[in-house]
Amino acid sequence: MSVAQSLLIGILCMISAMIGRDYFSIIFTNSKDLQEAVSHLAYLLGVTVVLNSGQPVISGVAVGDGWQALVAYINLGSYYVLGYPLDSFLGTKVKLRSWKKFSILFYTAKFLSPISLSLFLLVIPKKEEQ
């Protein structure tokens, strides 16, 4: 239930970022070029908010059940085992710019980590309380 609530809040924040993408940069700058760049990055902001809304709840459930080491290994695996090799491949073979590579690394890890944790929470039986 709390994961669904967290994702709902994340989706609402993403929608507000998409709706106001042309307007919230006006608060910080008068430059039209910078306002346009911020408007293009609002899509990444929306996706980031949604990806970051569910993972803390799932990680908290796993840590609360005593799986701190499992959470750490999944997060390390998402970033270092899968994310960085993909990042290196895209940088050397595909010749992507550094910020695009980093965003792919970040989103790969942010996508894989909660999915992996969710699978472990569904598959591994919960400990009995004493």
Which features characterize this protein?
mainly alpha; 4 helices; flat; 130 residues; 80% helix
Question: How would you describe the shape?
Answer: flat
- The proportion of residues forming helix, as a percent range, comes to over 70%
Let me know the largest β-sheet.
none
Low-confidence stretches: none
Cα Rg = 18 Å
User: Beta-strand percentage?
Assistant: under 5%
Distance between the termini: 25 Å
Taken in chain order, the helices and strands follow as HHHH
Enumerate how many helices there are, as a single number: 4
Mean pLDDT comes to 82
What is the number of E strands?
0
Structural class: mainly alpha
Task: Please provide a written account of the structure.
With 130 residues, the chain is mainly alpha-helical. Helix content is 80%, strand content 0%. It has helices at residues 2-19, 32-64, 68-94, 98-123.
Brief overview, please?
The chain has helices spanning 2-19, 32-64, 68-94, 98-123.
Write the layout of secondary structure elements.
Elements: H1 2-19, H2 32-64, H3 68-94, H4 98-123
Helix pairs in contact: 1-2, 2-3, 2-4, 3-4
